[in-house]
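Final paragraph of the annual report: two paired records, presented back to back.
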Amino acid sequence: MRSGALYMAGLISVAVAGGVALGLVLKRRRKSAAEKERERRLRVNAIGRICDGTIVELADSRDSAGKLVRHLHYHYSVAGATYSAAQDISLLRGLAPTDKCSEGVPASVKYDQQNPSNSIVICELWSGLR
C-alpha cells in the first residue's frame, strides 16, 4: 500500500509540474504587429542590398482605433523586375522628414536578395531618404 501512495504522489507531482509548464507556455507574450514589423525592418537592414528607388507618395490614414497611420509608397527595380511597395513609417516619424518624402524624390531602397519584394526605405538604424 505504501508503494501505491508513493506512486500516486509521484503522478500528481508530474501532473502539477506539467500544468505549470503548460501555463507558462500558453501565457507567453505574443509579439505585436508593431514588434514584428520592427524585427522585419531590422532584418532587411542587416542583410539587405541597396538599390535606387523613387518615392511615389506619403499617405496618412486612420486605423480602426482612430490612430494615425503613415505609409511611404515607393518603387524600385531589381534584376529587371520593377517592384511597388509601401512601408508603414508611423513609428519612424522623427526619422522621416516630409520634405524628403515627396512624390518623385529619389531614395535608396534596401531589399532582401532572397525575396526582393521585402524591402525598406527607412528603419531605426538606416535611412535611404536623401
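The closing record of the year follows.
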Amino acid sequence: QAKIDKKVAERVAYARKPKSKALPLLTLSLIAIGVAVTRIYADTHDGVEWTTYVAVALAITGVGLVIGTFWGYGGPLIFLGLVLGLTLAIGSALPNGRIGAQQPNPATAAAVDARYTHGVGLLELDLTDVSDPTELLGRTIVLDNGIGQTKVIIPEGLNVEIDSDLKLGQINLFDRSVDGTDNLLKTPATGTGEKLTIKIEQNVGNVEVVRS
C-alpha cells in the first residue's frame, strides 16, 4: 500500500509541476517557417490552395506531438492539432480552397470555361457581354461551389436549360424557387433546337439564375 501511495503522490506532484512551454513554442516557430516556405513556393509556382498551408501546419504539429511523447510537454498541441484537422477536413470537402469572390465576365464564347469551381464565397458568371452567344449553344457549363452564393446572368433570348443541385439553402431560377435541404430544381429550355446547358452544384448557400 505504501508503494502505491508513493506512486500516486509522485504522479500528483508531476501533474502539478509547471510544464515547459519549450516544445509548443518550438512547434509554432517551425509552423511559421513551414508556412513561409509554402508561401514562397506558391509565389513561384502559380499559387497553392489554402488547404496546403493547413496541411503543412498539421504535419508539423503531428511531429511535435510525437516528440512530446518522449520529451517535453505537448499538451497544447493536441488542441491545435484538432483545430487544424477539422479545418483541413472541411477544406478538403470543398470543390477547391478558393475564398472570396470569383466573377468571370467573358467577352466571347471561346473564353467561357466548361467548368468553374469555387470554395467559399461568391461565384458569379456573367454571360451578357459574350459577343457571340449563339456559339454557346450545344455546350454544357458546370459551376461547382462549396459555401456561399452562385449566380449566373443569362442574356435575353439565349435558349438555356438549368439543372441545379443545392444541399442546403435556397435556389432561385428565373421565376421559380425552392429552399430547404437536398434541393433539386431544373428549368427546361424554352426554345427548340440547340441549347446551352448550365449545371450548378453547391453545398450550402444560395443559387440564383437571372436574365439581363
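Residues 22-44 form the longest helix (23 residues). This concludes the annual technical report; the extension proposal builds directly on these records.
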